[in-house]
Fold these 2 entries.
Entry 1:
Amino acid sequence: MPGTVIVGTQWGDEGKGKVVDLLAEDAEMVVRFQGGNNAGHTIVRDGEEFKFHLIPSGILYPGRTCVIGNGVVVDPSVLIDELESLRRRGIDVGGLRLSANAHLIMPYHVLLDTAGEARLGKLEIGTTKRGIGPCYADKSARLGIRVQDLLDAKILRKKIAAALEPKKQLLRPYERDPRIDLHAMTEEYLRYGHRLEPHITDTSRLCWEALDAGKQVIFEGAQATLLDLDHGTYPFVTSSNPVAGAACVGAGVGPTDIDEVWGVCKAYTTRVGAGPFPTELSDEVGAHMADRGHEVGTTTGRARRCGWLDLVALRYASRLNTLTALAITKLDVLSGLDRLRVAVRYRGAEGAVFDEFPYHQSILHTAEPEYEEVPGFGEDITGARTESELPPEARDYLALISETTGVPIRLVGVGPGRDQVVTMAAAP
Ligand code: GDP
Ligand code: IMO
Ligand code: MG
């Protein structure tokens, strides 16, 4: 299985980092293909916690090639900080490769992200305010600054000036802000270029070479299917395509290089930021999930909204990503709940029944989930390592997910540690 894509199936923070870390053990290369430092991927190894925003989750394996692909938007100051903090912890970061074609988040993108949210007021998206949307907007408008531009002072200055021109009006409140002074910005970004130069290369070619040699390459998704710009709960989405299909574009490989697509799914649902969330709970069960699951955003520290698992949405994610496997995480968080519920269909405001994820925004905003209820389990399962060590109710819950989606479950997370995982018997 040379090319394996790992994607989030919900609204992010499913535990993609942990799953990538587990699968990366046998891989040659790990590649991020979209998003930026809006992502926060956590790995816990021997009780030590690592949080990655830009660097792929394979970096903890010495010598592993870790690629930031062309589809990622890179804030170079964040990347340099992340590299420095890993170095200080004794991690070898020599294997990091950065695409020369990736776009750069500039200080004005961050300011515009914050200003855009303020302008929306009550209608705000709840972005991470990392400049992600404005950076992808410039990329589409062909006003983006790319990693390769950092290596040529004249080009860099010219491109920054061209990118600033149409933003003059919007940036007027920050006119005197030294962060967006043309000269200062050019100098600052040239310094970043100098620091990052040893890592900059043609990463599409690197991926091709590894795949061509039959080596395993893992494509690490950030964000998730329901935050996808095209397929998610627009406009409450991110500005990239986190679905599996985007791995090809964002890494520069062809569709036939992808052999497997793993979907990571929490045993319940969480969402940070605004937007529809049909199975959201505001009762003590939601509080149990938030508390036991430590549901606080890795990047922004915001509380995550919590709710029951939504199988309508998961079926949708399985289809959009053509999932070949599921990794169910945080099953341990559900222990202690008497009854478990999963949404199996929605009912619209006028009583219409939706078995499939509705495409219409207004329907999704008012949809009421219809649940199937199954018995919960009281046991602490954090020590389970095999399927047979899981209580029968937990196994039945997993079977229900797998049967409803038609996708086999390969891994089940029972705690944050890398050893806290149950490998499921391969499906027939
Ligand atoms: P990502 O963005 O998809 O990589 O996920 P995050 O790292 O933002 O959030 C997932 C959180 O859950 C992290 O704090 C992980 O350490 C933790 N985690 C991952 N898998 C499990 C699990 O199976 N059980 C528990 N209790 N925590 C987990
Ligand atoms: P990982 O990779 C959860 C959400 C934000 C907001 C919306 C748009 O850790 O799963 P943006 O800053 O991207 O313009 O914000 O997307 N969001 C995430 N939510 N996990 C993430 O990443 C997210 N990245 C963005 O909260 O609702
Ligand atoms: Mg996260």
Entry 2:
Amino acid sequence: MARVFLSKHPLIRHKVTLLRNVETEPQEFRALIREVAILLAYEATVDLGVKEVSVQTPLTTTIDHELTDRIGLVPILRAGLGMVEGIWEMMPAAEVWHIGLYRDHQTLEPVQYYNKLPIHPTVQVCLILDPMLATGGSAVATVDILKRWGAKRIKFVGIIAAPEGVERLSTAHPDVDIHLAAIDDHLTPEPSKPGDPPVGYIVPGLGDAGDRQFGTG
Ligand code: PRP
Ligand code: URA
């Protein structure tokens, strides 16, 4: 089974509560996605490789460390976009590779529409960024793409997951660490009457993360 890291950090708890709130407007929603992503990435990168280097301070020469792992940030469009900017500021040498997927409304299976990965892998560690892990289809498809590309170390950084998504991703790819802010209760079933939410949404969740960031829907 994959390792699942569920953050208990009070700042994350507070910000996720604000994200869930239906009254939170897109501008604040985007800021919160950015902030939670930074906090989760901080936890997810605790084992990055470093090497000792010599550094001249104003007072003396000493030995400290610099990163050796090259990092790829892989946002799943659209909702993963909001997680890139803040993390990128923390690791400006990272490369950003976009994967475009949307869920088919009937089957809930991911449909790929964009992939601009170079022919050969250029990074040692890939962080997949997507705030929502619902059925897990999009995350599994993205890991499949990255593995075919040749990526060796892959971590999934999400914000809210359904138990179904965690199970599907960790079963399909037990070597992929999963970093989350919350694992919620269940996914919505097929609507049985007018006014029911569409199938496949995380409950309690935060609604549609793409629509809430971009003011659509
Ligand atoms: C959302 C979300 C994930 C996916 C999760 O994207 O950002 O990519 O659904 O669902 P899954 O785990 O069942 O695959 P969506 O397909 O709504 O596309 P969008 O971000 O472009 O709105
Ligand atoms: N995608 C979202 O944006 N929200 C959900 O609850 C499920 C999939």
